Amino acid sequence: VQLQASGGGLVQPGGSLRLSCAVSVPSGWAYRLKAVGWYRQAPGAQRELVGALNSDESVDYSDSVKGRFGISRDNAKSTLDLEMNNLKPEDTAVYFCNAKPVSPSEAGAADFWGQGTQVTVSS
Q1: Is 91 helix (H, G, I), strand (E, B) or coil?
Q2: Do 101 and 34 meet the contact criterion of CB atoms below 8 Å apart?
Q3: Helix/strand/coil (H/E/C) assignment for every residue in 53-99
Q4: How far, in whole angstroms, is CA 98 from its chain's centroid?
Q5: How many helices (H) and strands (E) are present in the chain, helices listed first?
Q6: Residue 93: closest CA among 14, 11, 15, 36
């Protein structure tokens, strides 16, 4: 599985930005993805969940972004997009795309990670 994130940049407080994660799954792959989502890591902080789309189509968001961020999937482009609105300086971080695989027997496996894209919110 390959994850390619794009769309980061510099934006002023209150502004908007859209990130996109291109998801590529090998043909014939026996596993499935139980969730695909976004994490972020600010300098000196631990990586934290931003939001994730689960296989049952439910979406989980961290409390810090609820009502401001939205996750959507574009099946035609095989991307998972993160729409970020009303951005705050505390949203500044490197944003990573994440995918959580499970085996055919529903056993967990190591996560896949994209390369990260920098989002900076500053005036």
Answers
A1: helix
A2: yes
A3: EECCCCEEECCCCCCCEEEEEECCCCEEEEEECCCCHHHCEEEEEEE
A4: 6
A5: 0, 11
A6: 11
Name the token pair of 86.
């009303």
List the chain pLDDT tens, one digit each, 123 residues: 999 999 999 999 999 999 999 999 988 888 889 999 999 999 999 999 999 999 999 999 999 999 999 999 988 889 999 999 999 999 999 999 999 998 888 887 889 999 999 999 999
The span from the CA of 15 to the CA of 64, in Å, is 16
Q: Cα(88)–Cα(59) distance, rounded to whole angstroms? A: 22
Pairing of strands 79-84, 17-24: antiparallel
Q: Burial level of 66, CB count in 10 A (0-12/13-18/19+)?
A: exposed
